[in-house]
Amino acid sequence: RKEVEQDPGPFNVPEGATVAFNCTYSNSASQSFFWYRQDCRKEPKLLMSVYSSGNEDGRFTAQLNRASQYISLLIRDSKLSDSATYLCVVSQGAQKLVFGQGTRLTINP
Amino acid sequence: DAGITQSPRHKVTETGTPVTLRCHQTENHRYMYWYRQDPGHGLRLIHYSYGVKDTDKGEVSDGYSVSRSKTEDFLLTLESATSSQTSVYFCATAKGGTSVVGEQFFGPGTRLTVL
Q1: Cα B107 from Cα B52, distance rounded (Å)
Q2: Residues 6+ apart with CB under 8 A from B86
Q3: Sheet containing B4-7: which strands, arranged edge to edge?
Q4: C-alpha–C-alpha distance, residues A49 and A57, integer Å
Q5: With 80 as the cut, is the pLDDT of residue B102 above it?
Q6: What mean pLDDT comes out for the span B66-82?
Q7: Exposed, middle or buried: residue A78 (CB in 10 Å: 0-12, 13-18, 19+)?
Q8: Contact list, A7 vs chain B (CB under 8 Å)
Q9: Which one of B45, B90, B101 has the shortest CB-CB distance to A43?
Q10: If you compute the radius of gyration of chain B from its CA atoms, what whole number of angstroms results?
Q11: Which segments within B1-115 are labelled E, that is strand?
């Protein structure tokens, strides 16, 4: 079983729609949680951290459920520029990260 | 963004040849990492370094070695390349210390093809 599992998609949604991704992790000792974004043929970049209380950054909302060991990302009012692969990432400390395989999102005009 | 460069950016080589990939950073970050990215697997950690001359294995270290003789450079060597090592290789850095755990900065990647 992979340590971090994501639905690989692809998700194809119209511009302006709301889209949500989930991710599950297997190690209950995981300490920190993140979403990274990776554009086609580019390097990953940190999108946002995920806190137990949930957090929001503009149109993006991240939630963490430690009891069920899942993380979610909600994108509201999606834009064409949101098209990318979204990577769910978990840290078990010591500055080491475990990446999910990513969920590919395409926003259609 | 952290100044991270990788060289070469593209390489085609033959099975059995040695290959060295270089990662160079200008941000004085303590931690450096080598990942490979393959379809269906996502990013997997090969080796990482937590300081000069301090390195450790990641989840897919077999067939790879690393060296870090200076803060700014982290080398990844494939001693004898195999076709299964065809992949995109990313270098990353992290500040360490009290910085945000989990914020890693990635280089642009190296596409390696082993024929």
Answers
A1: 19
A2: B112, B113, B114
A3: B4-7, B19-25, B73-78, B64-70
A4: 10
A5: no
A6: 97
A7: buried
A8: none
A9: B90
A10: 13
A11: 4-7, 10-13, 19-25, 31-38, 42-51, 54-57, 64-70, 73-78, 87-94, 105-106, 110-114
What letter represents residue A34's amino acid?
A: F
d(CA B12, CA B37): 17
Q: Provide the pLDDT confidence category of residue A8 given band limits of 50, 70 and 90.
A: confident
Which amino acid, one-letter code, is at A56?
E
Asked if residues B60 and B36 have their Cβ atoms less than 8 Å apart, the reply is: yes
What residues of chain A have any CB closer than 8 angstroms to a CB in chain B?
4, 8, 31-34, 42-46, 49, 87, 89, 91, 93-102
Q: Is-cis flag, bond preceding B39, omega within 30?
A: no
